[in-house]
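ok so for the tutorial part 2 we go from a plain amino acid sequence to predicted structure tokens. step 1 is just haveing the sequence, like this:
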Amino acid sequence: MSYLPKSDPQSNPATDAPAAQSRPGTDLWRPLWRAHQQRPRPTLVGKVEAEIAIVGGGLEGLSLARELSSRGKRVVLVEAQQLSQGATGASAGIVAPQLIHQSPDDVTKRLGAAQAERFLKLLAGAGKRTFELIGERKRDVGASDAGFIAPVRTTTGARRLAAIVGQWQRFRSDLKLLAADETRALTGAMGYAGALLDPTGGWLNPVAYGELLATDAESTGAVIFLRSAVSSVERAGSRWRLACSGGSVIARQVVLCANGGNAEIAPALRRSILPLHVCQMATLPLDPQVRRTILPQGHAMTDVERDVFSIRFDPQGRLITAYPMSERLREPGRLNELVNRRLGMLLPGFRATPLEHAWTGVAWLNSDLLPRVVRLDDGLFAVQACNGRGIALSTAIGHEFGAWLAGGAKDDCAVAIQKPRAIPGYVFARYLPALLMNATLAARQVRRAVLPRSSTERE
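step 2 — the prediction. this is what the tokens look like for a chain of 459 residues:
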């Protein structure tokens, strides 16, 4: 099947003209998703009781609350700020039901055959489950299920993708391998040797999606408290007591879903995950003629290179992308210039367009880049790190772990349930993501200085 476009524009005003023709406003640093309206919810005052208490109002906590409450459990969720305030609200909203670097064989070596099979089946259905849960409410959450594309730049990378598609055949047969010309046609991006196409992926507004999960959970009895930071969790007889800023929650079981915030509550988690600072931005809406040359069928795209390039549109036609963050790029004009330059170099059809929004956040990484549930004690768990691919996977984990908790099963959860373990050499390892980010920026500057503009391997 051919995806070749009818035309292949060669001119590239985005790199030939300065991006700063229209300067971005001084209010650039605001998340695109901030404008989404959320239902008012109370702050916890006094003591409340529940069967299961959840700490953290991101997608993992909200998906878990939805699943447990739908199964008749009395659920209380407490969030220190607003829903989706952390990693959820800092994301690009891409539904990517794929691991970043691991293949199914890699997962099997890491987890063992039985556990890997359960997890891979869960991941294989994660994108489909996300959009089935949304159902007829796609417009409410700014969602599209057009698919997700993961390109690679080299022929070696393309061969690896082919092997990965083959390994997935046991679990799903809908993945497609795209040739270089098909990748160019579907993304509008130059310099890729091929790509994996996952038709169950797509994109959405992550804050709106979090609100959808919250209202679903509340409709079946879950209670959500905002601005209720948890300072400690401790035994209270046969139950657990969460001490909050305005009161307390007494529960039979507690699940920590606050990612990096988990370590502030449970000291055993303090050296178990690594912070990766991310920066996302959105342009002003692009001209419709330009849009027809970039992701023309509405896919989302994130490549699997170290210098990650990611693009998607929102329903209003803004192009959302990412850029390695450093303090010197906080000046709006400089960020606008560099992001436009990169977009122009990789997308021949792009025209310089000022940025309208930019926002930063932290993605939390496990050392093996696989999600896990940590059992801290009897009845005390932590869901830990979706490693930057959290929308579909968080939805699936909430469903799976909620069913596991509600059913009382002990050994068949699709997400590995493990003991706390510190990352070896954490004192140094915690700086590794930032060092890799700085190395990526430095390498990009070198390439820009030595490579001709006609090279397809730029940026």
